[in-house]
Amino acid sequence: MYNKKVAVVGVGNTLMGDEGIGILVLHELEKKTYSGDIEFIDAGTGFFNIVSELRSFEKVIIIDAVHGGQEAGTVYRFEIDDIEGKRDSAVSLHNFGVLESIQLERLVAKLPEDIVFYGIEPQNIELSMEISPVVKRKVNYVVQKIIDELRESGIEVVG
To answer: Which of 158, 159, 59, 58 is nearest to 118 (CA)?
Structure first.
């Protein structure tokens, strides 16, 4: 099986409650050992600062809190093609979002075609270092979904 070079990017602000869920999921994924070419990137709230680093990857998985209009704890999975061109797409809670950063970068450079987003609907976005229980309960589910996604790219969990 072909092994893609994959970046897993956590986005969020750990000081703003559920807004930090992307970083929490990223750190849980980092605790495991993988076969293959994988890099974990903690982008914090500055995804636009790291977007150019994604040029060297074949697949990018982005994890973030997402306002999609569903109940808190809802998990979303979508690909870049699912949301590009839709003005009302809520991909990120940040002032300058992930989607806008990707679109701008694509104007000047080639980014991977295979970009996948995992989002979790937040409950509380307020000054706090705590993730709400309803959102925190989804961490293991999202971790497993991303592990499955990695497996499809030829990367296995080995420890």
So the answer is: 59
Q: Are 65 and 122 in contact (CB under 8 A)?
A: yes
Residue 80: name the closest of 52, 51, 116 by CA.
116
**119, 61 in Cβ contact below 8 A?**
no
User: What residues have CB less than 8 Å from 6, skipping those under 6 apart?
Assistant: 36, 37, 38, 39, 57, 58, 59, 60, 61, 150, 153, 155
Quote the tokens at residue 90.
């809520």
pTM, whole model, 2 decimals?
0.89
Question: Is the model's pLDDT at 93 over the cut of 80?
Answer: no
Tokens of 141: 């589910």
More confident residue, 57 or 81: 57
SS3 of 40, please? strand
**Distance between CA atoms of 89 and 77, rounded to whole angstroms?**
13
Adjacency order of strands within the sheet including 114-120: 38-44, 6-11, 59-65, 114-120, 75-79
Provide the domain limits for residue 10: 6-152
In a domain, 159, yes or no: no
What domain count does the chain have?
1
Task: Kindly report the CATH number assigned to the domain that includes residue 102.
Answer: 3.40.50.1450
